[in-house]
Amino acid sequence: MRTVSLGNTGPRVSALGLGCMGMSALYGEADRAESVATIHAALEAGVTLLDTGDFYGMGHNEMLIGEALRSAPAARREQALVSVKFGALRDPDGGWSGYDGRPAAVRNFAAYSLQRLGVDHIDVYRIARVDPDVPIEETVGAIAELVEKGYVRHIGLSEAGAETVRRAAATAPVSDLQIEYSLISRGIERDILPTTRELGIGITAYGVLSRGLISGHFTADRQLAAGDFRAHSPRFQGENLRHNLNLVEALRKIADDKGVTVAQIAIAWVLSRGEDIVPLVGARRRDRLTEALGALDVTLEEAELKAIEEAVPEGAAAGERYPEAQMAHLDSER
Ligand SMILES: NC(=O)c1ccc[n+]([C@@H]2O[C@H](COP(=O)([O-])OP(=O)(O)OC[C@H]3O[C@@H](n4cnc5c(N)ncnc54)[C@H](OP(=O)(O)O)[C@@H]3O)[C@@H](O)[C@H]2O)c1
Fold first, then answer.
1. Does CATH number 3.40.50.2000 belong to domain 3-333?
2. Residues flanking ligand 1, CB < 6 Å
């Protein structure tokens, strides 16, 4: 597996990371045994970066990763790097009630995550959304103290805008910014990516398949459970969905000509944007993982990149990437 450096100060990680969210939350039911098998298969294939959030299934995802790490061969477990997001506040009924980036909360979140994961340190630690009531310097400063004490190795950011990235980086070394980036979510190209590149900060890109929308497997008649994020996501609704799936069909022609899959084209396109960008793929099953890993062998020539951008021009998607209330939490969209 090819490895890359996560920013100037971050760890070396596999060129593709595994995002584990869907194994516990937001995409409907997941199979626990298959989830653990998928994590094991990823580690076996050389994937070293596992991404989670303490709020994915209210601790469920961290406990799942902990279980998978404990039952993996020692050599694989030792190579694994776990990136954890914190800060989202949940209700017992699964509701969301804001973010908390106060230093005491940061220490509290970390203490619980270490226990649930069953590890003595977290490799990359980041607040999931910038808390508008707490200066980023205070949140990042609290993580920096955890780094000093050995509980955290690297500081990351998530969905932060360019100005916040600068302020965070002036406080302590930042390894990477985790943010949505795909053929149909290219907002970071304007200000954020130039800023992270100037500062030597890596990108861990999520939603590279736009949550399955541009994977080539999503169909208009798919029934989604009420708790499935996609049941409320603007891009998956009615006319927007039909429009967006037409873009996928245009991509499918390019994929077919090249003898690869749509998902592989979408992941390979993100990989082609630069070595500083590490896609986190949200595979929940081994077959999806195998497909995603195949993207690492796909090289896109200039003419193919041009054809892809013609098939899916910037801004071509219908609908925002989050429902309105959640868009309001995105510092990156201000
Ligand atoms: N920082 C943040 O704010 C943030 C937000 C969201 C996610 N994340 C992180 O990023 C990770 C990835 O995000 P994501 O899951 O939304 O992105 P994604 O990779 O765009 O979407 C994953 C979904 O795509 C579908 N899919 C179809 N073919 C696939 C293939 N070959 N490989 C992988 N998935 C395939 C799967 O749905 P089916 O299984 O239903 O087919 C899967 O649930 C998450 O697990 C999480 O760790 C971070």
1. no
2. 19-22, 27, 51, 85, 128, 158-159, 178, 206-212, 215, 217, 263, 280-284, 288, 291-292
